[in-house]
Structures are given as structure tokens and as C-alpha cells.
Amino acid sequence: MRISHEWIYQSIHADKHSGGDPRRSLRCRKGRRKRYGSHDRRGIIPERVSMDERPAIVNAKRRFGDREGDTVIGKGHRGALVTLVERKSPYTVIGSLEHEKADAVPKTVTEALMPYKERVRTITYDNGREF
């Protein structure tokens, strides 16, 4: 015996219009379908500026001193790093965070870039919400 998907939908539709409960046709007869995945509960960054709005000279990658910053969280949240990658060259400065709080990032970035303070022009972050 062969049953097409159209026949299944037609029988559910006919049952619904004759007063039946369409939830009985679901696999587990529950009122709602299971939602897979989850939404992000960390909120929206206030006063966020898009990476597309950075100056054209920075996007061109023609000068040294423009860096992109990001945080890397360790497995099981057992540590974190701040990476600052030069946009023109692959030169990277990495700093270790003392604790996983947002207020530790500026201090770590300042300490990591202190030897290069004459050569730092801009730092662009990816607006991630790691913490």
C-alpha cells in the first residue's frame, strides 16, 4: 500500500474541518513542536558600531598600525585570550585575561600594546558577546 504526502495532508485538513483535533496527527500528540536550537540570551551591545562603518583607509589595508581585536574563550570557559591582529601583515599580539569579565579586556590590550604604542593607529573589535 502506498500513501503520498498529499494524501496525509488532505486527511489532516479534512479531519480539522470536521471538528477533529489536528494535534492528534503530530508524532507525539503534543500541542507544540519541539524547538531545536536556542536563541542568544546575552542581549544587544549598547551603542554598537558596525565593522562596515570603519574608515576607508583602514579597510584598504595599506598602512601598518590598524588592528583587529577578538577574544578567544578556552574550553569550558577556563581562561581567555585577547588577540590583536595587524590588518596589513599577519603580525599578532596575544594577551592573557586575568578573569573573564569585559572590564579586564582594556587593561590587557593596553599592557599588550605598550611596547608598540607609537605604531598603533586603530583597533577594531568584532562586536562579539563572549562574556
From TrEMBL:
Residues 15-24 have a biased composition (Basic and acidic residues). One of its GO terms (molecular function) is transposase activity. The lineage of its organism: Bacteria, Pseudomonadati, Pseudomonadota, Gammaproteobacteria, Candidatus Kentrum. This is Integrase catalytic domain-containing protein. InterPro entries: Integrase_cat-core (IPR001584), Transposase-Integrase (IPR051917), Transposase_IS30-like (IPR053392). GO terms for biological process: DNA integration; transposition. It comes from the Bacteria. NCBIfam families: transpos_IS30. It comes from Candidatus Kentrum eta. GO terms for cellular component: cytosol. Residues 15-39 are annotated as: Disordered.
